[in-house]
Specification:
Layout lengths: L4 E2 L18 E4 L3 E4 L11 E2 L5 H10 L5 H11 L14 H9 L2 E2 L4 E7 L5 E6 L5 E10 L5 E6 L3 E3 L8 H4 L2 E4 L2 H15 L5 E4 L9 H14 L7 E5 L5 H7 L5 E5 L5 H7 L8 H15 L3 E7 L7 H13 L4 E7 L13 H12 L4 E4 L13 H7 L6 H4 L7 E2 L2
Helix pairs in contact: 1-2, 5-6, 7-9, 10-11
Bound molecules: iron/sulfur cluster (SF4).
Length: about 400
């Protein structure tokens, strides 16, 4: 896509006592900075505590005439105690709570509109945002050999998605807007609350293209890592490929995994499956991935959805191996047998095709994993559950579609 899009969000601090005349910046993995709430905010933007760093919360406390340790308490209440309402911040003086509320501050947690549990324990949530829009988030518990449970949260980064990959339920459901950092972070907290345990892994593989919302995704990443204490290596950012963004992401030197949704071993087939690939040739993506590996020393993972009769032949596997070997070491392929969605022309591949495909890759020294399909009975494909509810959408079509002309070009 020649012109790719990202919204630039801002929070606001309109009341005199809450104003602090400095541009706060949030260290992102110690190397790059992402601008946090500043003075140049639109008045109508929400003032949300969730997503703020300890340093910012301390400054906020000072701005309200409190001592800075009140900011540490706020941090504890938000991220350890996971309190959802300012009035329930019982550690804080009532007067401070009231002042925060009167100044328009809120925690920034949304309600869960619907939760669907599959037989294997996977839970898909529909989170209802402040503007009544719905996003999906999925909690995936996996028991390891020692009996301890790893809990992965698969989070959304946008409401819907503008990229319209041909096999994807989210793409078919249309695009509304980017999520703000707290709307990403709260998905993880909602999963923790539901499972009553800590999330160990986060994958940005839910609704939306994270690289079209990079600023908020990076700020959410900072919060998940520094405030909620999920290791960077436990976080995966997945992209279908947006020009100029892999390079930009590499410059932050995150220790998280970059996953590229490839789905085809050549440009022609890829364009059929992923229409946005027209603007980002395969060779350019592979070069950016090689540079990403050199810059971060982090292995790039390739996601490959197997569509029966489309991209699942052994010949495709051989071509994929050739492509990956041409661009260097450090690659891993994650095969995803397609999850059928209503109205799609694609079909789920046979088990023997999946096995033949992975064997062909392995015999060419490519490391492979096959993603176990989880929660098939809980509308497992990304966007499916939301689409079911959007058949009777909470908003009218006109309200729900943000104008593409509002999209800005990625720097
Ligand atoms: S697969 Fe990902 S990038 Fe493609 S339409 Fe779906 S959500 Fe968007």
């Amino acid at each position: 896509m020649a012109r790719m899009s990202v919204f630039h969000h801002a929070c606001t601090v309109p009341l005199a006592r809450a104003i602090h005349a400095r541009a706060m910046s949030v260290a992102c993995s110690g190397t790059a900075t992402v601008t946090a709430p500043s003075l140049n905010k639109k008045k109508e933007d929400p003032q949300v505590l969730l997503g703020m760093s300890e340093q910012d919360l301390q400054q906020l406390a000072l701005d309200f005439g409190q001592q800075s340790y009140r900011g540490k308490q706020l941090h504890h209440l938000l991220y350890k105690r996971k309190v959802k309402e300012i009035q329930d911040f019982s550690h804080l003086p009532l007067a401070f709570r009231n002042e925060l509320q009167d100044a328009g501050w809120r925690v920034g947690r949304s309600s869960v509109h619907k939760a669907v549990t599959a037989a294997d324990g996977t839970v898909k949530l529909l989170v209802k945002l402040e503007d009544n829009r719905l996003v999906e988030t999925v909690g995936i518990p996996v028991k390891d050999d020692k009996g301890s449970v790893r809990l992965t949260a698969c989070v959304s980064s946008q409401v819907g998605c503008p990229l319209r990959c041909s096999f994807c339920a989210t793409g078919k459901g249309g695009f509304s807007r980017n999520l703000k950092k707290h709307e990403i972070v709260e998905q993880v907290l909602a999963i923790e609350e539901l499972f009553k345990q800590r999330v160990t892994n986060v994958v940005f593989m839910g609704m939306g293209e994270p690289m079209l919302n990079m600023k908020e995704v990076l700020e959410a990443h900072r919060c998940l890592n520094k405030d909620i204490q999920i290791g960077q290596r436990m976080i995966t950012i997945s992209t279908v490929g947006v020009p100029n963004t892999i390079k930009k992401l590499a410059s932050y030197k995150l220790q998280s995994t970059l996953a590229i949704s490839l789905h085809a071993p050549n440009q022609k087939l890829r364009e059929k499956i992923v229409p946005s690939a027209k603007s980002y040739p395969l060779d350019a993506i592979m070069k950016d991935c090689r540079d990403y590996f050199h810059e971060t020393s982090r292995r790039v993972s390739f996601e490959y959805t197997l569509l029966a009769g489309v991209n699942d032949a052994v010949e495709h596997a051989k071509e994929l191996a050739e492509l990956l070997l041409k661009w260097g070491p450090g690659y891993h392929v994650n095969l995803i047998p397609y999850n059928p969605i209503e109205g799609s022309e694609y079909k789920r591949p046979y088990k023997k095709s999946v096995l033949a495909f992975s064997t062909a890759l392995e015999s060419r020294k490519i490391t492979v994993s096959v993603r176990q399909t989880r929660g098939l009975d809980a509308s497992a494909a990304c966007g499916q559950l939301r689409n079911e509810f959007q058949k009777t959408p909470l908003l009218s079509g006109a309200e729900d579609q943000q104008s593409q002309s509002e999209l800005l070009v990625v720097a």
